[in-house]
Specification:
The protein is α+β, with helices and mostly antiparallel strands and 238 residues long. Helix content is 18%, strand content 54%.
Length: 238
């Protein structure tokens, strides 16, 4: 009976979680500068694009760039969004991924965000929502026109579940100014490493009990084997 229980419990415990990588369900990557834009919904691989405002130079400019990569265990990217007056302009670089984890993972990496603006607004964000959340940001606007940065080293345990990662840099100008402009950027790389789940106390107790039962049964079989060998005149050491 204990041997059967042991087999069942062993079947419930995964032999290895090395293959438990994040499963990306949807992805959206975008660069936009006024009416010029490029985007991708590919759930893996490299996205390396740029967008630029198509209006004449005397009407101001807007630029956006992004180089990003989605791999089974690594998400990384750099993006930038810039605007310069005169005129109303909007620039953005967006990295979004929805994914699920079937096992606990340790998330490690680095995030760098910056925003600087004068007579404009600039923002950079790194937001992870789900069972575990992370929220980082940098913002600069009118006033105080001061640059803002945020740098973080990430080392966080992610519980199993569904997650959504949104990383973006945006810069906007709303009208005619002189000498104004704004810029924002992000630079991040995060790695997912599966972590073995610790058995619950009840499950651990059953495993130990089953293991002890198997050991007792094995000793009994060996003892019976020695007795049978002695009765038949055979040397059990042979």
């Amino acid at each position: 009976m204990l041997f059967a229980v042991a087999l069942v419990l062993v079947g419930l415990v995964p032999a290895s979680i090395a293959d438990a990588v994040p499963v990306v369900t949807t992805a959206f990557r975008l660069v936009q500068a006024d009416t010029d834009q490029d985007s991708s919904t590919a759930t893996s691989g490299v996205f390396n694009e740029s967008a630029a405002s198509l209006v004449p130079p005397e009407e101001g400019i807007a630029n956006a760039t992004q180089t990003s990569d989605i791999q089974p265990s690594v998400f990384q990217g750099t993006g930038q969004a810039d605007v310069v007056d005169p005129g109303a302009h909007d620039a953005r670089s967006v990295f979004q991924v929805a994914f699920s984890l079937s096992a606990p993972h340790q998330l490690t990496g680095n995030v760098n965000l910056s925003a600087e603006a004068a007579l404009a607004e600039a923002r950079a964000r790194f937001d992870l929502s789900g069972p575990t959340t992370i929220s980082l940001g940098a913002a600069s606007g009118s006033p105080p026109f001061l640059p803002d940065t945020e740098t973080a080293v990430i080392n966080t345990l992610l519980n199993p579940g569904n997650y959504f990662l949104d990383v973006r840099a945006t810069s906007t100008m709303s009208g005619q100014f002189g000498g104004g402009g704004g810029g924002s950027n992000f630079d991040f790389a995060v790695t997912f490493t599966p972590v073995a789940a610790v058995p619950e106390p009840a499950t651990l107790s059953l495993l130990l009990l089953a293991g002890a039962g198997v050991a007792v049964m094995r000793r009994r079989r060996l003892r019976r084997g020695r007795v049978g060998s002695s009765a038949s005149g055979l040397d059990p050491s042979l």
